Amino acid sequence: MISRRTFLLGALGCGVGPTAIGGYSRLIEPRWVDVNHIHIKINTLPKRFEGFTIVQLSDIHHCKYVPAEFIRKCVRQVNALSPDIIALTGDFIYESDTYLPALAEELSHLKANEGVFAVPGNHDNKELTLYALSKSGIRLLINELVPLYRKNDYILIAGVDDLWLGAADVDKTLRGVNGESTIMLSHNPDIVTGIKHGNVDFVMAGHTHGGQIYIPFVKPTVMFPQFDTPYIAGLFHVEKTTLYVNKGIGTSTYPMRFLARPEISVFTLTG
């Protein structure tokens, strides 16, 4: 965590005005991780899952601008939270699949009481990602649904393929769901528009980087028109489904962030 004093010293060290903003956006904010704690209410949550915790990492984008050392630091932060499960919502690498083995090695150190689950993003080769993450003890869900048990109680964890470059199939993924508490991992938040609401209680997504470069009073998609979605960052309620869009920890296109700090999300489920 970077203190306000560190931020101010960094900005002063980079100069003033546009120079300071540029230096801050390139050197400080991309490594200034925000840990957000959010309570998620699920009316049908079994009693044994009251207080269940999920930590989400998204859009790691391992590349020359997002080094292994930074990912290692984020992994340590996640582990320190002692989550019940960890959710990884896609875009593991950027520009080259050659970064995937090193990333998988870093992610192999993630520790969760009841498993680490992932879905692919639009930058991920599914076959290579499945192979690398499986070796690291991470379960990649591609249009799949798995139950998570605590004695006779259970919740359902669903994961869909990428909405842009994959073959996302919500109906196939949710086949057989009949009122159980269901949590979905999706890279792209727009998946929420294809859900029959009531089938999924909570969706975790990423993809947008929170706009990555946010200019006040300017729509974030001006800088990144590919993020033309109403779901840029944070918590949304779409009919009966709760959606959370994580800002991710990496960058793409431009190796900088402005007013869109990298994020680790911590969810506590309550009935």
In short:
This protein has 271 residues and is an alpha/beta fold.
Account of the protein in words:
By secondary structure, the chain is of the alpha/beta class. It folds into 2 domains: 1-32, no CATH class; 34-270, Purple Acid Phosphatase, chain A, domain 2, CATH 3.60.21.10. It is 21% helix and 24% strand. It is built from 6 helices and 12 strands. The strands form 2 sheets. The protein has a 6-stranded mixed beta sheet with strand order 1-12-2-3-4-5, with helices on one face. It has a 6-stranded mixed beta sheet with strand order 6-7-8-9-11-10, with no helix packed on it. Helix 3 (68-80) packs parallel to helix 4 and helix 4 (100-107) packs parallel to helix 5. The protein is globular.
Structural features:
six-stranded mixed β-sheet; alpha/beta; 271 residues; single chain
The tally of structural domains comes to: 2
Question: How does the overall form come out from the CA principal axes?
Answer: globular
CA radius of gyration:
18 Å
Residue stretches low in confidence (pLDDT < 50, at least 5 long) are 11-15
Mean pLDDT metric? 91
Number of beta strands: 12
In terms of DSSP E residues, the strand content is 15-25%
CATH structural class of the largest domain: Alpha Beta
Head-to-tail CA distance between termini: 31 Å
CATH topology of the largest domain: Purple Acid Phosphatase, chain A, domain 2
* Helix fraction by DSSP (H/I, runs of at least 4): 10-25%
Number of helices: 6
Element order, helices and strands? HHEEHEHEHEEEHEEEEE
What CATH architecture of the largest domain would you give?
4-Layer Sandwich
Q: Characterize the biggest β-sheet.
A: 6 strands, mixed
Assigned CATH superfamily of the largest domain = Metallo-dependent phosphatases
